[in-house]
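Risk register update: the risk of archive-format incompatibility is retired. Evidence:
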Amino acid sequence: MEMTRKEHWENIYSNKKLDEVSWYQPKPEVSLKFISDHCISKTAAIIDIGGGDSFLVDYLLEQNFQAITVLDISEKALLRAKERLQTKSEKVQWIISDITDFNPTQIVQIWHDRAVFHFLTDSEEVKKYALIAAKAIAKNGIMIIGTFSDKGPLKCSGIAIQQYTVASMRLVFQDNFELIESKEITHQTPMRTEQQFLFCVFKKI
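Archived output:
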């Protein structure tokens, strides 16, 4: 029987080390730069969608951000992050959820997603993501999404993905967001391969 999406990711985080997954980054410099450019207050609420056990939360804590939430479908991934952070993890809100089932209960100023959105290949799930983001993000708030570009891979972690261009990203979010910045990035994986990402920064209108 085919694994569910949650089972797939729990399996990945149960069997692969931190630096054995293609999305591993010792320092998420691009994400940190975008957050720094668009977030003027250390008390601004930030949510990292699909944050898993990435190091973004470590650096945000180091920079004294005070209202950080990390959401991931994998409980194992979040446990790994909390174990790494030890007592610092108490300063973070941790949410175990598939993004398409997420019901936001607080308004955030910064929404960050590096490499979740492109796993949604069903058009209805894409629409649901856009509506959830619109509900969660404050007016004039910022949404940062890093996704595979049209030069990127067709699969990741054994799963088909959806590639995007600037035009197709703008189209998905046009009802509630204005695209204010975009940048193509080459990510080098731990396996020494390259993946082409497109980062888009939107403002909630």
